[in-house]
Amino acid sequence: MSSRFPPPLPPLNSAAILKSHGLRADKSLGQNFLQDPIALQRIVDVAQVLPTDTVLEIGPGLGALTRHLAAAAGRVVAVELDGRLIPALEESVAGFSNIHIIEGDILNIEIAHILHTEAYLVVANIPYYITSALLRHLLESTPRPRRMVLTVQKEVADRICAGPGDMSLLALSVQVYGQPQSIAKISAGAFHPAPNVDSAVVRIDLFREPLIPYDLLDAFFALAKSGFRQKRKKLRNSLSTGAGKTNKKEIERVLTEVGISPDRRAETLSLQEWQMLTARMNT
Ligand code: SAM
Predict the structure, then answer these.
(1) For ligand 1, is residue 180 a contact (CB within 6 Å)?
(2) Phi, psi of 168 (to 5 degrees)
(3) How many Å lie between the centroid of ligand 1 and the Cα of residue 125?
(4) Predicted local distance difference test score (pLDDT) of residue 244
(5) CA atoms lying within 13 Å on the CB side of residue 179
(6) Helix (H, G, I), strand (E, B), or coil: what is residue 23?
(7) Residue 34: CB within 6 Å of ligand 1?
(8) Does the C-beta of 58 come closer than 6 Å to ligand 1?
(9) Could you tell me if 30 and 186 are in contact, meaning their C-beta atoms sit under 8 angstroms apart?
């Protein structure tokens, strides 16, 4: 009897694959291989991958997530830095004809050079040591993805999704470009070797355009950076030493004009308040 659903993929045994290729996981490259089939399928489900989608995967490793993505997507482009893993990766994905493997450092690759479509998703269990740089690289790339579903350190997922009261430069830099949600926790035991931090899947649905107009983005980030550089200080102090404005009275006046108390601290401001402040300071 035929079924609408393809048979589940048999799980990969990362330890056995590494051993048979004479390899060891390289911690300095963030190599914790996700091998729990339920967690892998959950990531693909959260990403809502369609057969027409192109998916960019960063760090396919031994191919566990790559296979699940290839079973759901039209095409998977997978960028792996560690050339030692490529033969094992090619073996794991040998049954799929819709996977294109690129050896390289994602941070040195222009997305437009490897993807020939405007509409793509990023789905990846990323190396945690490049989380901030990678988010920035992807969010500022052209073309930008439609959606990103990333496994990151749980604490980082919480920071990305934070609201006023707990805002950070990281939260602002993601929330300018899209709506993040922390979807599910993944326990350390789902990985080989087990990391010593908890992990979480974060989904970011990107806006068509950033919430701050392009011509104000640099000014917005410069202002926010100066606020967060001295985040324990009140805005009247942090902004007057940071944003190129040395005149505290002027800063207090502008803050008051847009309805923000100069006694507040950077982490309490919403994105909309940073937006108003940027616009007011650049008119
Ligand atoms: N996707 C696999 C999985 O789920 O089991 C492996 C995930 S592991 C956390 C991260 C992977 O990213 C490793 O294979 C590592 O070699 C690779 N990696 C590390 N830095 C990278 C970079 N700058 N560019 C591309 N891949 C990188």
Answers:
(1) no
(2) -145, 170
(3) 7
(4) 55
(5) 3
(6) coil
(7) yes
(8) yes
(9) no
Q: For residue 32, how far is its CA from the centre of ligand 1 (angstroms)?
A: 8
Give domain limits for the chain: 14-206, 214-281
Q: How far is the CA of 168 from the centre of ligand 1 (A)?
A: 26
Q: Distance of CA 191 to CAs 36, 64, 83, 145, Å?
A: 7, 11, 21, 26
Q: Is 55 in the pocket of ligand 1 (CB under 6 A)?
A: no
Local confidence band at 6 (pLDDT 50, 70, 90 cut-offs): low
102 lines ligand 1 (CB under 6 A): no
CATH 1.10.8.100 given to domain 214-281: yes
Residues present in the chain in total:
283
CATH number of 14-206: 3.40.50.150
Buried b (16+ CB within 10 A) or exposed e, 10-36: eebebeebbeeeebebeeebbbbbbbb
Q: Encode pLDDT of 107-147 as tens digits.
A: 999 999 999 888 899 999 999 999 999 999 999 999 999 99
